[in-house]
Write the structure tokens for this entry.
Amino acid sequence: MDRLHKDYVLIYLSRDQHTIPDKFEKFGAPRHYFLDENGKILFSTFGVLEPAGFFTVLDEADLSKEN
């Protein structure tokens, strides 16, 4: 959680409770998106992940930020 809060802005959206912006998929939950400061999607994935798997996703998102 420290890494997430340090490097990212966390937002939770539920299609049952929120209006989902058009650029995001509305099916296949849960989905994880990583955006740049302009809102461009750099990396996305979906599915329930164990903590170790989520660290791999964060590593991939970090690589996307660098490119």
Notes: The two ends are 24 Å apart (CA to CA). The chain has a mean pLDDT of 84. Helices lie at 2-7, 51-66.
